[in-house]
Amino acid sequence: MEKILDFSRMPAHFRRCFLKECPQRSECLLALVSDKVCGDELWGRAVFPAALKQEGGCPFFQSAQPVPMAWGFTKLLANTRFCDMAGLRVAIQQYLGSRTLYYRVQHGEKLLKPEQQEAILDLFRQRGYTKDLAFDGYVETYDF
Question: What does each of the 144 residues of the chain score in pLDDT, given as a tens digit?
Fold first, then answer.
C-alpha cells in the first residue's frame, strides 16, 4: 500500500489547533496541521482554549495516525455480472450521496475511509459477490 503523508488533500476548512498546553497535542492531527501547514496563512478555523476545559478531553481531537484509504470502482465492477453492474453503480452513488462524488472517488480525487469501503463492499456481498473484492487503489494517508 502506498503511503502519502502530505497535506495536499486537506480541505481549506480543516481546523487548526495552536494550544501548546494540550495533553493530546503530540497525537492530534489538528496540531500536526497547525505545525506543518500554517506558514503564510493569516486567519482560519481554529480550536479555542475552552476546548481544553471539556470533560473527557478536547471534543475536536483527531488521531494523527495515517488511515488506509481507497479509490476507484473499476476492479469491483469488472468482476460483476452485466445484469448487476448498473444496479451496483446506482447503489454506490446512493450510498455516497451523489453521482459527482461517485466519479470523484472513481478518479481518485476523493478517497474512501475504511468504514465507507466496508459499506460499499457489503453492497457487493449482498448480491452474492465474495471473491476478488478490491478497489482500484489504496493509499495510507491522513483522514481529513
Answer: 656 666 777 887 888 888 999 999 999 999 888 877 666 777 778 889 888 888 888 899 999 899 999 999 999 999 899 999 999 999 999 999 999 999 999 999 999 999 999 999 999 999 999 998 999 999 998 888
Residue owning grid cell 496541521 = 33
- Return the CA Rg of the chain: 19
Q: What are the E-state strand segments in the chain?
A: 2-3, 67-71, 137-141
- Cα distance between residue 102 and residue 105, in whole Å: 5
Please name every residue paired with 141 in a beta bridge, in sequence order, or none if there are none.
Answer: 67
Q: Which amino acid is at 119?
A: A
Which residues have C-beta within 8 Å of that of residue 126, sequence separation ≥ 6?
none
Q: Which three cell numbers stand for residue 90?
A: 446506482
φ, ψ dihedrals at 121, nearest 5°: -60, -35
Q: Tell me the pTM.
A: 0.77
Give the three-class secondary structure for 50. Answer: helix
Q: Which amino acid is at 33?
A: V
Domain segments of the chain as ranges? 1-64, 67-141
